[in-house]
Amino acid sequence: MKDQDYMNLAIQLATGTIGQTAPNPSVGCVLVREGVIVGMGSHLIPGEGHAEVLAVNQAGEKARGATAYVTLEPCSHTGKTPPCSRLLIESGVIRVVVATEDPNPLVSGRGINQLKDAGLDVTVGLMKKEAQEINQKFFHFMKENRPFVTLKAAMTLDGKTATKTGDSRWVTGKKAREHVHMMRARHDAILVGKGTVVKDNPSLTVRQPVYGKSPIRIILATNLDLPDHLTVFHDDQKTYIVCGQSAPVEAFLEKHPNVGVIQMTNDTLEIDEVLTRLAALNIQSVYVEGGEAVHKSFVSSGFIDECHIYIAPKLLTGKDSYGVIGGASPEWMKDALMLSFDHVEKIGEDIFIKATKKMGD
Q1: d(CA 127, CA 125)
Q2: Where is the active site (predicted)?
Q3: Is 196 one of the annotated binding-site residues?
Q4: Is 246 annotated as a binding residue?
């Protein structure tokens, strides 16, 4: 096996933990000595051992003289756990292959420099693109200081999301809906508007445990006028309601003490301020599953990084049915939000499309 083979294994280890390590990135590590894998690890839960720790613990004394393949630059600072760069040095590792530098300013090059200063042979950049894709949302958050935003919608072939009565169960099939749960688990938060929770009373959780943990729930409700019976008020999943400046926050919290409230500086819920406030809570990615109005607000704001669109082989028809995005249309096609198709996949009877915002738009 070559360097790339071992790094590919480390990337596979990291990929398996996407969505469950936040606010930390997903990282994989493989230790190899004399052509034999002696330790492997991936960061599983924030606050617990990093990938390098697990790999070194598994290797024990066999780590001495080994090469470490790590998908992300080893941390060099003390947070909830000690620095991994120091651990690799003390364990006797003599060579470290790093896929990509850590964009976190607390690390960013420092971990690599510590390894080099200690006399270790360090190589950086092997499978860099693949490694950065694993932590796309983490890299974005560190660079932009705002959450990565994914807009999700399920629609018929003619672009409809619900009938004229609002009935939307179900647009797509079971396999596509299961795929949605996997995507939810890969985001820190899920965001909807008041209309969605009042009409559908959803749980907004990941109901297939195999996919990972449920995201934090974010609900936009300008006046906090939400009925008390909603599911989101009666379980243990963390929930925040975003409201306007004039909303009756104290009265609301008396009824729902376990729910957080994020109050805006005015009575209009501006998306840029919403995202700024979520970033302050270290929420690095948001899965927007709203209706026409919420989707329009995000598209108009320009803060859409990726779209997940599920298309069912159905024709609903009708001007009075609901679509993906509401509001007024721009006058000219040149004013459309330009995207690139990154991935197209058939899931069951439905089609899944992942499209990303074009760079520079």
Answers
A1: 6
A2: 52 (proton donor)
A3: yes
A4: no
pLDDT per position as a tens digit, 182-235: 999 999 999 999 999 999 999 999 986 666 789 999 999 999 999 999 999 999
> Are 46 and 89 found together in one domain?
yes
Angstrom distance (rounded) from CA 81 to CA 24: 12
Residue identified by tokens 């995207």 is 339
Residues 6+ apart with CB under 8 A from 124: 73, 98, 99, 100, 101, 112
Q: Which domain holds residue 312?
A: 145-357
**Does 213 share its domain with 304?**
yes
pLDDT tens per residue across span 108-118: 889 999 999 99
Q: Does the annotation place 295 within a ligand binding site?
A: yes
- By residue count, the chain amounts to 361
Provide the number of structural domains found in the chain. 2
Q: Does the annotation mark 306 as catalytic?
A: no
Q: Which of 52, 73, 101, 306 is catalytic?
A: 52
pTM here? 0.93
